[in-house]
Amino acid sequence: MASEPGPRVPVHGPRPGAARDRRGRGPRGVFSLPGPLTPHGAPIHRTPREAFDELVAEILTRLDRHFAREPDHVEVAIEEAPLLPYGWDEPVPRSIVNPAPGGYRIVLYRLPIIGRARSAADVEDAVWTVLLTRLAEVWHHDPEDLDPRD
């Protein structure tokens, strides 16, 4: 008769042994195992699109009190890049405002925003600037009045 295996014990804590660094290309393998605070493991890598989406979500969360007060409904969307007509000779826009049912839709273009930035701090500052400028345009306020970073 085959014996039944014992209860499964979850693996917690650091991985035993040294992290592998084959041929000087950096460590390989699992960096975060499941644990009591992260039952599915922690995500190690985010794509640039996911990182940008999280940045915009964090900024919108900080601007949440304005969304509750203003009468015009505003929806924020993110697209990779605008579709420009043939022969476009002006700078590529970083965002646009479109009318939407019951309010407005602000579309942020990820690649033009990131392409004009030199660092992650520049990307964050550019997203703040674009969002505050567009929200001020829709709600007829000064962008400095909406900025919670003061």
UniProtKB/TrEMBL annotation:
<dbReference type="InterPro" id="IPR010428">
    <property type="entry name" value="Zincin_1"/>
</dbReference>
<protein>
    <submittedName>
        <fullName>Metallopeptidase family protein</fullName>
    </submittedName>
</protein>
<feature type="region of interest" description="Disordered">
    <location>
        <begin position="1"/>
        <end position="46"/>
    </location>
</feature>
<dbReference type="InterPro" id="IPR038555">
    <property type="entry name" value="Zincin_1_sf"/>
</dbReference>
<feature type="compositionally biased region" description="Low complexity">
    <location>
        <begin position="1"/>
        <end position="17"/>
    </location>
</feature>
<dbReference type="Pfam" id="PF06262">
    <property type="entry name" value="Zincin_1"/>
</dbReference>
